Amino acid sequence: MFSVTLMPSDNNSRLCTNLRSTLSENIYDYFDESSVQFWESNEEQIIFINKANQEAQWGVTINADNRVVLEEFLNNIQSPVPLELLEA
Predict the structure, then answer these.
(1) DSSP letter (8 states) at residue 23
(2) Residue 47 in 3-state DSSP?
(3) pTM (2 decimals)?
(4) Which of 19, 55, 56, 64 matches a 20 to 30 Å C-alpha distance to 10?
């Protein structure tokens, strides 16, 4: 199993309904819905050790069985907001 997390480059970015819908359409072209988890952090839950290094408030975690499909998705992803990749 291969797992990656995509988070917005801009930590102030919000996951609105339209953005989630757009990202879902792109992601579900490659992966089953059960392999994808959108998550949001409640601002009270985030611990700011250094205000300059704020954490993202949302992200998408993808668990894939096929590395080739995952790499193809990452090479072709289209997103209205810039995303950063974290590999697990």
Answers:
(1) H
(2) coil
(3) 0.82
(4) 64
Instruction: Please tell me which residue, 54 or 23, carries the higher pLDDT value.
Output: 23
Report whether 39 contacts 86 (CB < 8 A).
no
Residue found by looking up tokens 């992200």 in the block: 59
What tokens appear for 13 in the block?
């970015």
E-only strand ranges, 1-88: 2-8, 36-40, 58-64, 83-87
Residues 36 and 44: their CA atoms lie apart, in Å, by 25
Instruction: Count how many domains the chain has.
Output: 1
DSSP 13: -
| Domain range for 71 | 2-87
